[in-house]
Amino acid sequence: MDYDGWNRTLTEHFFAIREAATPVYLSVDDALLADLLTSRTKVAVAPPAAADDFRAAIRSVVFGRDPFDGIASRARQWRRNGAVGTPPFIAVLASTVLAAARMNRSEGTTFGRFSYYGPLRELLGLHEGSGMPDGYDVIVPALWNHLKWWLTEHEQGRRGLPSAVPHPTQVNIGWSLSQAVLVGSDRVQVGLFLSAIGAQPGDSVPAAELLARFQEWVRLNRPSPRIQRALASTELRPILASILQQELTHYDGLPRNAAGLPCVPLSLTTDTGGAPYGIAARIPSHLHLKSLSLNGDVIRVPLGAEWLPLTPPAQKLTPGLALELAADAATLILPARDLYVLQANDLVGKWTSVNTAEIGVPHRVLVKNSYAAQAEEAMLACGAETVRRPRRVQVPPGWTLFSGYTPTRSAKVPGVVGPLAPLHQQLARLSGGLRIDGGRQTFLLGYAPDLVLPATPDDHSRTITINGVPLPAVSPAATDTITIRLADRVHSVGEHQIEVGDRKLTFTLVERYRESVALPLLALPPRSDRLATIPSRIQNTASPLARTPWLPPGHLSGSFLGSYQRDPLPSMSLLRLGGSLYALGGNRLAAQLVPEAPAWIAGMDYVPHAIDLEPLLDVLPFQALWLLQVTSSRNATVRPAPVVQSGTYGAPSGSWKLLSQADWRRLTSGNITTAAVACAQDWNDYTAGK
Description:
It is built from 17 helices and 33 strands. It is globular, with a radius of gyration of 30 Å. The relative contact order is 0.06.
């Protein structure tokens, strides 16, 4: 395969259009080259042969006294011409990463600098000279910056986000070195780690703390040898720490694979703690999965389902087995473990495995025999008194089952049995509150979350501040989880920052929010003379007042936003956005309305919305009699406009444009549905000019 063929193949492999804007690692090694060439040629190719083919392709564009000038010129021209087509430099960058994957220490040294330029020169065929090739220190970092620009600005994250970062000491080779630390499949492991420590979107955690927690997590799990080598390397540990921080920055609450698809965690299930074992998927609320396709079968995911029991695969499911199932829209993952903490699950009707034990909740513990004694000591340290080993439950050979474990406190329990300590290795986190689902930490004013502080084994007290104001020091002697009610301390709309030592947590409070469609409204206890409302999860068909029949038909894309009165029914001026919206008045007057959502909701991920129209109607030069919403060429709905008291509102959120009488005729002559039967005659009179 020639250079352009390799360049295109690598680009399609690493930078395919993906579901989520997540970091992409250009991780190239000999095994991957063999897989890509085999896939391209449909003929099995061994790694050495694939490496020779790739090396020949790279040498066709990188050569001579200024080996990188040619590719630098092509990159500049490609960018000047609008970045049309495949970036011409991906294969060259891949070769620099391949050299990093092959590098080794200098001969005769146990500690010291890695040998990078030797493998690079051999790969590029630059046998004359030694050390850094001419132009490398200027052109190669520039190529990484071209890649960053292409992914973030030109492609807007559709093909992933750049992950290359400079090394704190190895300035020139750090970009390539950062891509050789993890391969794409390792992203799942990092995501599982972030999930296990209770990380939340928007978190800020120091790199050193993340790395220390990751090293402890690795002791409990079985990550790839590549991750273990990075942790053991003095040179690679700083890069690994920066990668962990980068992954946390883009973490949306779900592990993701190399293609950006979400990875849904599986839990081991059992009736009694013993065989037979099954699996259940825990469905995150913000994933919005409608179905899963497993082994050709389409499994519908019920609306609002939190847990979904699944039929185990054909092979016998046993503890300690790692399981990964492809399900089209997601990947389902059950990590291999030496210890399972089981908790009774009413939604599944079985015991299911959880990340860590919980204070005051009964658990069963399935652990390998080699760790059984440590597990018993850990349970005693956490306050258990009635732990026993059931004799009539059939467990697999090599495993021990404990029942009756109800922890009453936390303790410092490291290693494999660490999850027996409540909130083991968990970060301080926000919990509860009335959260607005949208991928960000946004809550309704008056219903802020609690701050949960796991018991800490550290010897120093934790400094906690809320919006810069310190709270009384929390004693490090306390071994129980500490909960601080933020609703009692934070009373204003806007963003708030919590600092727990070096860790930062942010959340936003908003005053009004309503979520939508044909659902009864459940009133919360009023904070003031305004009444906030949220939707009930239960469909109430008994009361016609519990519905919202005034909603326009067609494509309805969101939630409602506006002023709330004591009457729990929504105001007629709250209209769902979607399609084009017009205000019609007397004497054939018409205006197109362009409402805008407030900044706090418009900036949220995946939160559809609507807006209060009265401020817009107030500034029109005529009195609006009707509101017309056109959602398609064949679908338009009209309803009476609300009566607006002039001068009641300030500046509107949006704009309007006055239309001609010809536009009025066009708008009113189509096939229009009235929002209520009682309005039909009034609409007919209006269009007839009566």
